[in-house]
Design a protein that fits this description.
Pfam families: Cu-oxidase (PF00394), Cu-oxidase_2 (PF07731), Cu-oxidase_3 (PF07732). By secondary structure, this protein is mainly beta. 6% of the residues lie in helices and 36% in strands. The strands form six sheets. The chain has a six-stranded mixed β-sheet, with no helix packed on it. The chain has a six-stranded mixed β-sheet with strand order 21-20-23-28-25-26, with no helix packed on it. It has a five-stranded mixed β-sheet with strand order 11-19-18-13-16, with no helix packed on it. The protein is globular. It binds CU-O-CU linkage.
């Protein structure tokens, strides 16, 4: 189908601003964007049409389908200057890709500069008709998707130019929230019926903060992390970092009533803790009002990532470094506003890396930006060790395109797990500890690896893994309109 990208004034928290939105038609454009749904095995064909007009923001765009591997279609992955040129105003581009072996909870967002912070973000679900966990829940539909996001009253274009941390003005759940000057605005309501079990799909659309998430009076049995099934694990609350997803089963087994859905942001006070509250879980038959209990902090058992178990093993040998290739990546910070990996800030090339590869540059040393490119051979086990040079550095949710990975050492533990650690596509790297991941190289193309705090990405916290460059051309046939994107771009330098 079509996805129109438009500018529109919106006030999801009571403050009106110009935004960048997606919709099946221009007048259906919304925040969050429309839920994109498919079944395992389906092919997506999404025609993205750039109808942006607001001169105060960037008018180019592109969309990334976060968590989708893009085997044989790496040209449809989305990050501008990595796998494509931006789509310019009045142009369109068709993303076509299939999901033969993936199911779960994903999302999509602009991958052009920090544009998704202006609104271009939404949930995407790939249902598995043969989900082995089906017997654990009764309901799994559009109403069981819960999106969390930070919301800013200024445009990303403006915020990027301001030095220092950018603090969101509000926390939105399913696109609704309250700003401190508008403490009585409408909140999202998630409706349940007593006795039923719901597969809730929690999606962080965040540009920056993590959220400590809980539902008053209910526990959550986690069954999925970032599109990978886990062994069921019951917790009372969890911390979800930017771009991560969880599915959990919620059993509506409490007295009929209203219960707070709490999302406490790691930055700022505009979530539950600020007294502005977050969203409401409402049982059928309960009065149309807010929960009475206003306790500010969720309590009970907080998820420790190390307790999450996948159902698959880990590639490589069960010792640290037991992989074909080990890469160490140290995250650094240069005041006031530059981030580095192994001392190099990522600077976007002016020709997409994929185009460089297809034009004949196959050796990593020929690719730009050369100091940020790490070659990966095909059919090997890769281990990456992340650490932070700054002991006061914020947790960085590191995301790898084209793969999911096993978290053999989480920031939540000193121990390695080589047997059945959680698998995901975005992992939090924290100060004073190492986080180690493993995956097999079974894809080909330039894979972006970056911090999913958008302000850090635009400040350099990224590298590119050039995977199996020799096979990119034969493995990823590009459609003619992919080729057309770049000359158009060069003709409109005003949109840089
Ligand atoms: Cu969801 Cu490169 O990002």
């Amino acid at each position: 189908g079509d996805l129109h990208i438009i500018n529109k004034d919106l006030s999801p928290d009571g403050f009106k601003r110009s935004t960048v939105l997606a919709g099946a038609s221009a007048n259906k454009a919304s925040f969050p964007g429309p839920i994109i749904k498919a079944n395992k095995g389906d092919t997506f064909e999404i025609n993205v049409i750039d109808e942006l007009t607001d001169p105060s923001m960037d008018r180019s765009t592109s969309i990334h389908w976060h968590g989708i591997h893009q085997h044989h279609t790496i040209w449809a992955d989305g990050p501008t200057w990595v796998t494509q040129c931006p789509i310019v105003p009045k142009e369109s581009f068709q993303y076509k890709f299939s999901v033969p072996d993936q199911a779960g909870t994903f999302w999509y967002h602009s991958h052009h500069r920090a544009q998704y912070c202006d609104g271009l973000r939404g949930a995407m679900v790939v249902y598995d008709p043969y989900d082995p966990y089906k017997k654990l829940y009764d309901v799994d539909d559009e109403n069981t998707i819960i999106t969390l996001s930070d919301w800013y009253h200024n445009t990303s274009t403006f915020l990027i130019q301001q030095p220092g941390p950018k603090i969101a003005d509000s926390t939105l759940i399913n696109g609704l929230g309250r700003w401190s000057n508008q403490p009585n605005g409408q909140l999202a309501v998630v409706n349940v019926e007593k006795g039923k079990r719901y597969r809730m799909r929690l999606v962080s659309l965040s540009c920056d903060p993590s959220y400590t998430f809980a539902i008053e009076g209910h526990n959550m049995t986690i069954i999925e992390s970032d599109g990978q099934s886990t062994e069921p694990l019951a917790v009372d609350s969890l911390q979800i970092f930017a771009a991560q997803r969880y599915s959990f089963v919620l059993h509506a087994n409490q007295p009929v009533g209203n219960y707070w859905i709490r999302a406490n942001p790691s930055l700022g006070t505009s979530g539950f803790a600020g007294g502005i509250n977050s969203a409401i879980l409402r049982y059928k038959g309960a009065p149309n009002k807010e929960p009475a209990n206003n306790a500010t902090s969720p309590n009970g058992k907080l998820l420790n990532e190390t307790d999450l178990r996948s159902q698959r093993g880990v590639p490589g040998k069960p010792v640290p470094g037991g992989a074909d290739l080990v890469l160490n990546m140290t995250i650094g910070f240069i005041a006031p506003d530059t981030f580095t990996i192994n001392d190099v800030p990522f600077v976007s090339p002016t020709t997409p890396v994929l185009l460089q590869i297809l034009s004949g540059a196959q050796k990593p040393e020929d690719l730009l930006p050369s100091k940020s490119i790490y070659p990966l051979p095909r059919n090997k086990t890769i281990e990456i060790n992340f650490s932070l040079s700054d002991p006061a550095g914020a947790p960085h949710p590191m995301h790898l395109h084209g793969h999911h990975f096993s978290v053999i050492k989480s920031a939540d533990s000193q121990q390695y797990n080589f047997k059945n650690p959680v698998e995901r596509d975005t992992v939090a790297v924290k100060a004073n500890t190492t986080v180690a991941i493993r995956f097999r190289t079974d894809n080909s193309g330039p894979m972006f690896l970056h911090c999913h705090i958008e302000w850090h990405l635009v400040a350099g916290l990224a590298v590119i893994l050039a995977e199996d460059t020799g096979d990119v051309r034969t493995e990823n046939p590009v459609p003619p309109d992919w080729n057309k994107l770049c000359p158009n771009w060069n003709n409109t330098p005003a949109d840089i």
